[in-house]
Each structure stands twice: as structure tokens, then as C-alpha cells.
Amino acid sequence: MSTEVKLPELGENIDSGSVVKVLVSVGQSVAEDQPVLELETDKATIEVPSPVGGVIREIRVQEGVKAKVGQVVMLVDQAEDESETGNAEAPVAVAPVQSGESVKPEPRPVAEPELEPWIEKVQPESKKTGTDVVVLAPAKTVPASPSVRRIAREIGIDIADVPGTGTGGRISVDDVKAFARQLHRSGRSGGQQIAAPHLPDFSRWGQIDRKPMSNIREKTAEHMSIAWSNVPQVTQFDKADITRLEEYRKNFGAKAEGAGGKLTVTAVLLKVIASALKNFPQFNASLDMERKDIIYKKYYHVGIAVDTDRGLLVPVVRDVDRKNIMQLSVELTQVAERARNRKLSLEEMQGGTFTITNLGGIGGTSFSPIVNFPEVAILGISRSGVEPVFTNGSFEPRTLLPLSLSYDHRIIDGADAARFLRWVCEALKDPFLIALEG
CA–CA separation, 277 vs 283, rounded Å? Predict the structure, then answer.
């Protein structure tokens, strides 16, 4: 009996992923729950397990292509149960194989020819009637000319969402423009990003190398575009005196390493931010402009931006208010390692209420991080340095840490942002108070 291996649910708002690696081959035996595919989604790289044990009969995807949720990616032949068949004979092959021949997957079907130029085809749903027979439901068609569909794509509109006013529901340019105006007034988007300005042919001036974005880079670009276009953000800058904190880190660094973590400034800041968010609840919120509501969150999950060879990932450390600094240092070390080793689960990438991004290990004096929508604030950390500070009538060398707080100005006023960042700076100045909080 053959069992279909389908691409499982990948997470909220994720309907597909790119096949990074096929981990098995035709004819190979696999165990139940054994990984058979490595898949890269918009948020993480995951392994797809086989639902049953058996022998790989057919592989229907290739490395580098995209697969959709629910799509059959391979077939697995299960050995028949001897107690049911009453004998121990081996399962009969689907087709005889001559000596010296190798078992090959069935050829992929040739793509159907394009429909008439004014019809846009929408991917039909497939209805399973058996292991090898699939009946396709009739395709939905959208009556629109190529020029109208091109205009819709250029302004970021899904042509299938546009109501047509012409004969038979035919969609005109005016229909597309009217639909776009309606979306703009309602504060919603058409499911796509507004197209970037048309680029010139750069090869006119010299050699170029064009490479497609990875899933993670593409999603990062889309998310940053959404954040930048939807969030009127401002950045507040300040410096924290971490002279005593650095002594604190040196004294307790070995203890953290013994527990499997690393006592970094980011780990300490996780604890500080937990307290800051409780004192300034508008920073732990989201804005619902459609209903004109402010959503205040009663949990404190902080995202940590991690630099990986595949791009920026933001795993979330949950319930930072309930953990002490040592626990946070261990968890932070572990989650950063999983991010770099492609071991993050989708759940670990969701549910953040605030984000911290640290570029201090690379350099720079300050920067303006982009708010991680739908959050309303993000804290950036730059490289600390020793500076002379005038105190009690004389200059003293103090270690100062530059901080950058970007925030959504629709919900957070400038004065509140200044108070929030000053509160964080004062907390970092006295590590003893941080330790008292657990």
C-alpha cells in the first residue's frame, strides 16, 4: 500500500516553502517520523518527517523548487502486515524491473498550455480519488486583458480580488484603480507590496550577477516594507553608564558559562526590558487601526535579532519577566545557536511583544532600527566605549553604552519614549537593583 507524504501545516500565514534538500532517494527504506525533506519557509528552516515507515516509491519535488501546504511531495510503500495477509511474501512491485535497471520516479506531467490572453488562471484545488489518480477541479478564471493585469501587478493589487463592472464581470483599468483607492481609504493592502520603481538595465554599463532572494531575505524585505510604510516611526537616542555593570558581568560571567550560557549585555537587557514594559505598558502593545483599538499585552515575550548566514532571524524569548538573568543568559545562548544551525521551530519565531537588536559586536556608534510590526517599539544596541564624564567637579572615565529606541509615534509620544529610554539607562547603571528582581 502506498501512502502519500504531504507537506504539513507550516505555521500561521505560511502556505509554502522552498525545498532546500531532499534527504532520501527512491528505493530507500525510511522509518516513521524520519526526516525526508529540509524545507525553508519565510521564517525558518524545518524538517518534514515521513508519516509512516516503508520504502520511498516516488519523489515529486526537487531541490530549489517551492512546495505548497497539502501538496504530495512523495509516496512511501508500506510493507503489508503478515498477520493480515496470512503469508510472509514480499510486497509485489508496482511494475517489473529488469536486471540492471534502476527504479526511477514517474516523469512529471508537462505544464498545460496557457489560456487565452485575457484569462488569468487561478491554481485549482486537487481532489484525491486514489493513490495514483488525481482529478482537478475546474480552474477559476479572471476576465481581464494582459495590460489590465500588468497594471494591477505594478500597483500591488491581486487581480482576482477586483470586482469587474464590464460585460460578464470583465475587469477594466478603471476597476483596478477604483479598487486600489478603496483599499487605500480603508488602510488595507491588496495582499502584495507596492511595486518598486522600475530599474534600468544595469548590464548596459558593465557585468552584473543576478541571484534570486532566499525565502528569508524575501520575507525580511517584505516585512520591512510593511513596517516602514505602515508605522510612522521616530528614534530616540541615549547612553547608559554600564561601568558597574561590566564589573558585575566579569564577576558572574564564569557562573553563567558553567550553566551553559553567556552573561552578555543583551541577556541583562532582557531582564531590564521586562521591568520597563511593565512600567510603560504602551510599549508592550499593538495598534488596531481598523477597529481604532490599542491592544495591551499582559505577557512579555522579547524577540532577539540574530545574524545568520541566511539573513536576519528574530527568535522570541518568552516570559522574560518570570526568569532571572542567569536563566535568560542560558536561554539566549541556546536560541541564538539554534537560529544559526537552522534548528528554530516556527513557534519560536512568533508572539513577540518587543524586539532587541545588538550591533555592538560589529561596531558603530548608533543606528535607527525599524520597528518589528505589529510591535510598536524596538531597542538597538551599539558598541560601548570609555568616555570622560564630568562628575563631582572632575572628569572620570566611564563605560557608556549607546542605545537607540525606535517607536510607533501613533501610540507613543516623544516624551514617553525619552522617559522609557532614560528608565532603561538608569536600570543598567545599577546592576544591584536588577539582581534583586530575580
Answer: 6
Q: CB neighbours of 142 closer than 8 A, spacing ≥ 6?
A: 119, 120, 122, 149, 159, 160, 171
Q: Are 325 and 374 in contact (CB under 8 A)?
A: no
- Omega before 146 within 30 of 0, i.e. cis: no
CA distances from 315 to 46, 121, 195, 268, 283 (A): 14, 38, 29, 17, 19
For 392, which DSSP code? Answer: T
Closest CA to 54 of 35, 73, 22, 31: 31
Domains along the chain with CATH numbers:
1-80 (2.40.50.100), 116-196 (4.10.320.10), 233-436 (3.30.559.10)
What is residue 26's DSSP assignment? T
- Residue 301 designated active-site: no
DSSP 8-state secondary structure symbol assigned to residue 320: G
pLDDT band of residue 130 (cuts 50, 70, 90) is very low
Q: How far apart are CA 430 and CA 435, in angstroms?
A: 9
Q: Are the beta carbons of 115 and 123 closer than 8 angstroms?
A: no
Query: Which of 277, 252, 281 lies closest to 267, judged by CA?
Result: 252
433 pLDDT band, cuts 50/70/90, is: low
Q: 58-77, pLDDT tens digit by residue?
A: 999 988 888 888 899 999 99
Q: Terminus-to-terminus CA distance in the chain, angstroms? A: 57
Residue 243 sits at φ, ψ, to 5 deg, of -60, -50
Residue from 184, 223, 301, 409 carrying the catalytic annotation: 409
Q: Is pLDDT above 60 for 96?
A: no
Ordered DSSP codes for 323-357: S-HHHHHHHHHHHHHHHHTT---SGGGS--SEEEE
Residue 118's SS3 state is coil
Rg of the chain (C-alpha set): 28
SS3 134: strand
pLDDT tens, residue by residue, 72-95: 999 999 866 533 434 444 444 444
Please, are residues 434 and 268 in contact by the beta-carbon 8 Å criterion? yes
Mean pLDDT calculated for residue range 134-162: 69
